[in-house]
Amino acid sequence: MKFKILLIAFLLSTLTSSSSSSSSSSSSSQSSSEESNIISRFQQYLQIKTDQPTPNYTQSTIFLTNQAKSLSLQSQTIEFVSGKPLILIKWEGTNPELSSIMLYSHTDVVPAEHDKWVHHPFEAHLDSDGRIYARGSQDMKCVGLQYLEAVRRLKGWGFQPKRNVYVLFAPDEEIGGHDGAEKFSLSEVFRGLNVGIVLDEGLASPDEHYRAFYAERSPWWLVIKAVGAPGHGSKLYDNSAMENLLKSIEIIRRYRASQFDLIKAGLKADGDVVSINMAFLKAGTPSPTTGYVMNLQPSEAEAGFDIRVPPTADTESLERRIAEEWAPSWRNMSFRLGQFQQKVSVYDASGKPVITKTDSSNPWWALLENAVQEAGGKLGKPEIFPASTDARYFRNLGLPAIGFSPMANTPILLHDHNEYLHKDEYLKGIKIYESIIKAYASFDEHGSDGRSKDEL
After folding, report:
1. With 365 labelled, which of 33, 118, 213, 315 sits at a CA distance of 20 to 30 A?
2. Which residues does residue 296 pair with via DSSP β-bridges, in sequence order?
3. Span of 14-18, 233-237, 296-300, 369-373 with lowest mean pLDDT
4. Same fold, 42-216+348-450 and 218-309+312-343
């Protein structure tokens, strides 16, 4: 009798173990299949050629609206300028009276020099180490699809947001965003969304900390011009156009070095200083045989500079420096047309610096920090984005906007050759967004929502 009991116990144990093993194997297989599908969708999006200046918006629109359909979400295509579509996807909340969440990304990417890549930039090649090579893998097709994959998982678990969640794909960030995000931010459509927080793009982080941005530097694109008497190439004389321009270039170089030294010394981050880089140099008299006439000193010379100004900078002092030192009229210097080609203000319409608060007055920042931690991530200290994004159009309205791209342990390769993102980092990013979207969409501040958007 004792033997029979032991035998039955052994058989039950074996069956239970076998069933558990089979269940575990099935679960593992299902997880592997899900991940494969997620990566496949990412590759499909990356393979759509949306590079400027001739992006294929037709194909990207079809892809994105199909993704919305697969999630049973409403979508609409909006065009403020013909041929430049914005795709707006809505996940309806149970309490639409609460301000909504906007998850922003752009569909366009910068051009790529195909012959300088180890894999074709629109092949979305996944190598044996798990790297996905493609233009837009970091900037920022990754983020747009991570939003949707996070929503897919949350819906699969039966999560229902309190707030309306909008996922927006805009067309032209890489060329300024003027026909996309800028016009959208000023439209009746946008006002009707009652947006309370905007998430936009950030940057990859070479270490384990994710980076979050509360402001960005504004672009000042400057062209300075020098004039002087022409002369024979062998003649030495003062105040030639080239001599005057080179003096300015040297003064600008010294200023650039002083700003760069602050970064090198660890005293400031990239986004905290004024950066200036020469974009072009134009001078000389063209020749059909030699390229340029070599024995003639030109009467005009120009140089173009890309200046990026943080919202913490003293802009009046910088403007005086440009007028008095970099392009002084007494040295036969001038700005082209007497103005900057592009000068974006570091202040909003009310005269305040265009920044999103990171203290206790902004609940969205605290929610982001907690959500990242709960998902197993680490967030670095708040930063100023070193370049420009479309987030500025929403901050200009007084809305909080946070730049965030969950890419840790990843080299910064946006706009570079061989841009890639490791599949594991992409998958981790989806988990991070699940946590953030869930936290944001569940947030009910019980009265503090009555604060002005500027206070938030």
Report:
1. 315
2. 232
3. 14-18
4. no
Which pair of structure tokens corresponds to residue 155?
């819906």
Q: DSSP letter at 110?
A: -
Across 226-261, b (16+ Cβ under 10 Å) vs e yields bbbeebeeeeeeeebbbbbbbbbbeebeeebeeeee
* Topology (CATH level 3) of domain 42-216+348-450: Aminopeptidase (3.40.630)
Judge whether 400 and 215 are in contact, CB under 8 Å.
Answer: no
- For residue 101, the cross-strand partners are 165, 197
Distance CA 389, CA 140 (A): 11
For residue 404, which of 356, 453, 452 has the smallest C-alpha distance? 356
Q: Which residue has the tokens 């909003």?
A: 348
Q: What value, to the nearest 5°, has the Cα angle with vertex 426 and ends 424 and 431?
A: 95
- Is residue 208's pLDDT more than 70? yes
Q: Which residues on adjacent β-strands are paired with residue 224?
A: 303, 335
Other CB atoms within 10 Å distance of the CB of residue 303: 22
State the alpha helices, DSSP H only, in 375-455: 391-395, 423-442
pLDDT of residue 384 exceeding 90? yes
Q: pLDDT band for position 172 (50/70/90)? A: very high
* Bridge partner list, 287: 291
Instruction: Convert the pLDDT of each residue in 91-140 to its tens digit.
Output: 999 999 999 999 999 999 999 999 999 999 999 999 999 999 999 999 99
User: Which CATH class name applies to 218-309+312-343?
Assistant: alpha beta
Q: What number is the average pLDDT over the span 397-405? A: 96
Structure tokens at 49: 């050629």
Q: How does 128-153 read in b/e, with b if 16+ C-beta sit within 10 Å? A: eeebbbbbbbbbbbbbbbbbbbbbbb
Cβ(167)–Cβ(103) below 8 Å: yes
Mean pLDDT in residue range 222-237: 93
More confident residue, 307 or 28: 307
The pLDDT score that the predictor gives to residue 424 is 98
What are the boundaries of each domain within the chain?
42-216+348-450, 218-309+312-343
As annotated, the active-site residues are 108, 173
Distance CA(234)–CA(238), nearest Å, equals: 13
Which pLDDT score is estimated for 30? Answer: 61
Q: Are strands 85-91 and 165-170 parallel, antiparallel or unpaired?
A: antiparallel
